[in-house]
Amino acid sequence: MTEPLRVVMAQLNLLVGDITGNLERMAAAAVRARDELGGHVVVFPELSLTGYPPEDLLLRPELYTRVGEALARLAREVQGIDMIAGFPHQALGGYYNAAALLREGRMQVVYHKQHLPNYSVFDEKRYFTTGNGPCVVDIRGIPVAITICEDIWMAEPMLQARAAGARLMLNLNASPFHRGKLLERETVLRERVREGGMPIVYVNLVGGQDELVFDGGSLAMAADGGVRVRAPLFEEALVPVDITVGAHLEPANGAWSEPLDDEAAIYRALVLGVRDYVDKNGFPGVVIGLSGGIDSALTLAIAVDALGRERVEAVMMPSRYTADMSVADARAEAEALGVEYHVIPIEPLFTAFLSSLEREFAGLARDTTEENIQARCRGVILMAISNKKGKMVLTTGNKSELAVGYATLYGDMAGGFDLLKDVPKTLVFRLAEYRNRTAPVIPQRVIDRPPSAELAPDQVDADSLPPYDVLDDILEQYVERDRSVAEIIDSGHDADTVRRVVRMVDSNEYKRRQAPPGVRISRKAFGRDRRYPITSGYGRRH
Questions:
Q1: Has 36 been annotated as catalytic?
Q2: Locate the CN hydrolase domain: which residues (predicted)?
Q3: Fold of 2-257
Q4: What pTM did the predictor assign?
């Protein structure tokens, strides 16, 4: 038996558009893989030189010039180890999502991705031309196939590789997280190794990029479908994989990180998403409006876990309708987490607005207008702090509220990033309980008490919305699974409730379009995933 082939999976957190910075990170990783880990080949994620997804940066001709220069520099500066790097490639009259083998100062071969995803958050057909053949290269005497991300979800590239004599597949990925994604990936990989009769080394990107979070979880799967090496989730790592060489190639058992359960994975995704959004956009910290409710409490806990308490400021802005227990709970949350905390009552601002509008509102009954003014007073305060101190405002709206429009434009929706934008209310409760198992930072009565916006006397959410367990199931069916009103009713829900919820979802697209971005954790999030027209008559006859 010959010496094992050591493949190093370079699970890196890269920055979209930072070609020079990404090059430097890749070069440093390759040097470590060579000198510290004894690697023969290092594999980087998909489009590693540009970061993923570069979106319309790909329409700029200058980008391809800069990428070409960076690729040549990487090949020149790091030798003594093979490198497989992802990059956008201008060639043959088109633009391709590509991977190159760099060896001893030269680009030896280039592979063009054959299957371009054009669904959900992906729109690669907007930018790239489809590749049309396999790529099999010799690495230390072993025929190795190179594929990119979506290629592994289809049978054809694996069958091509096998027909071309490959005995090992290296797959570069930028595969974003959503609930259940790890199981989906491994199920697909098992189909591919069965079809090809060869191991797969699967290398995934890690890090937050706007709404998307890439969870890493790179792995090596043997031809029998067993995972032999698993990189950690939601963190950078250089992980070696030893491929034993004989009649059959076999990844040896190596580094192993346990998969995470649902709450742990989602919580880690939210932490990583907000950390990278704040850091990659250069904000010194964040400011959060605490209400004494569960959404702001969970947002505060995640922000502290992501950024550290010294970079988080919390502000309680009580009104005439704020319960004493809300004030006390907000203070308890801030003290438990050790953040800078201030109380700024909005009563003087609210009174001033009502006074200024008295003549305009003469003869008109009170309604949600007065409630929204309170939310907008708070929005003005938070944005003023943001402007003065340079901190980003984290909003605290959850997916259930945004879906049905239970939020105030230019009020509680005013800010730079919404951590819980894709987290339904029922999951908010589960995540709060999960966080408290680590340390009790959210008072139990915040979890137990009926949710309330506290914008009117004795107000609770149930006055305006169905119970959250009912609402979230209807929303999951309508928003994420695209089920019809009739199908949702047939699943056991009250017909009037379903029609009412669906009308609320359809009529509030204009609000969601103006909401800040937030971490995507579901199969279909508002924003990149679900793109509905604002002006539409589709839902008027439900």
A1: no
A2: 5-245
A3: Nitrilase/N-carbamoyl-D-aminoacid amidohydrolase (3.60.110)
A4: 0.95
